[in-house]
Amino acid sequence: MHINKVEICGVNTSKLPVFKDAQMKQMINAIKEGDEATREEFIRGNLRLVLSVIQRFNNRGENLDDLFQVGCIGLIKALDNFDTSHNVKFSTYAVPMIIGEIRRYLRDNNSIRVSRSLRDTAYKALQVRERLVKNNCKEPTISEIAKELQMEREEVVFALDAIQDPVSLFEPVYHDNGDAIYVMDQVSDDKQSDEKWMDNIDLAEALKKLNNREKHILTMRFFEGRTQMEVADEIGISQAQVSRLEKTAIKHMKKHIDK
After folding, report:
1. Dist. CA 84–CA 81, nearest whole Å
2. Which long-range contacts (CB under 8 A, 24 or more apart) does 253-256 make?
3. Could you say which DSSP state residue 185 is in?
4. CA distance 89 to 21
5. Which one is predicted more confidently, 192 or 43?
6. From the CB of residue 167, how many other CB atoms can be counted at a distance below 10 Å?
7. pTM
8. Are 206 and 145 in contact (CB under 8 A)?
9. What is the reported pLDDT for 91?
């Protein structure tokens, strides 16, 4: 199978339904009430989401049909655990779940052997992470995971590192309406501070040229070190929208700085 084709696992993705956000919320509510027909239709309508995620793994030498089926398991788990009350787009919640399911599959089939105890610790940490993401709708810190496991933070870090593949910060995670969301967009930076930004007078002046919403987003992202997911949750928009607004604001600032 070639990734360029729309045919995958016997499914012609060009013929799959496309649902609006409002329609998806209505469908999810119906699914929660036990509507199996709507559940099946919803899953089919989101298979493109799985396909877009597995493209990042197409250089691993793995069978893409297998990855697609594993990704579908992640999609179903995301649907089962999704809470519409958090005002987060389903795709924003589902993508990390799909990636996590695929990564677990790849780790289980990895030729590099990791001790059973270390693997068990890592899997427990991942289960806690998924539960905290479900409950809080944001990525937990390692310290929070370690606290839940009643373990030292270093033990959790060591276990997760042992089963983790290195990923480029500039590797795209998901494309939403043509705008890529990169790994670095989902990583917070605790070392950023107001002082480092405001030392540059030109930068401070350029910041004043932005509207209040743009200022608010850049303040949370670069002054407070918040992730795009956290910003999206706070102001009630999708992560993709935060990404677009952030890039637009930075572009405007560069124009003023370059003058």
Report:
1. 10
2. 253/203, 253/206, 253/207, 253/209, 253/210, 254/206, 256/202, 256/205, 256/206, 256/209
3. G
4. 7
5. 43
6. 12
7. 0.45
8. no
9. 84
- Flag the least confident range among 14-28, 54-68, 209-223: 54-68
**Phi and psi, residue 6, nearest 5°:** -85, -10
- 238 class by beta-carbon count within 10 Å (0-12 exposed, 13-18 middle, 19+ buried): buried
> Which residue's structure tokens are 């102001």?
235
Give the 3-state secondary structure of residue 175.
Answer: strand
Please report, to the nearest 10 degrees, the dihedral formed by the alpha carbons of residues 37, 39, 40, 43 taken in order.
Answer: 160
pLDDT digits (tens, 9 = 90+) for 98-146: 888 888 888 777 655 556 777 778 888 888 888 888 888 888 888 899 9
Cα gap 90→85, rounded to integer Å: 11
- Do residues 57 and 65 make contact, with C-beta atoms less than 8 angstroms apart? no
Enter the tokens of residue 78: 């995301």
pLDDT in tens, 148-179: 999 988 888 888 776 665 554 545 555 555 55
Question: What does the block give as tokens for 204?
Answer: 């401070």
The Cα–Cα gap between 29 and 39 comes to 10
d(C-alpha 26, C-alpha 102), whole Å? 28
Helix (H) and strand (E) counts for the chain?
A: 13, 4
Average pLDDT taken over every residue of the chain: 76
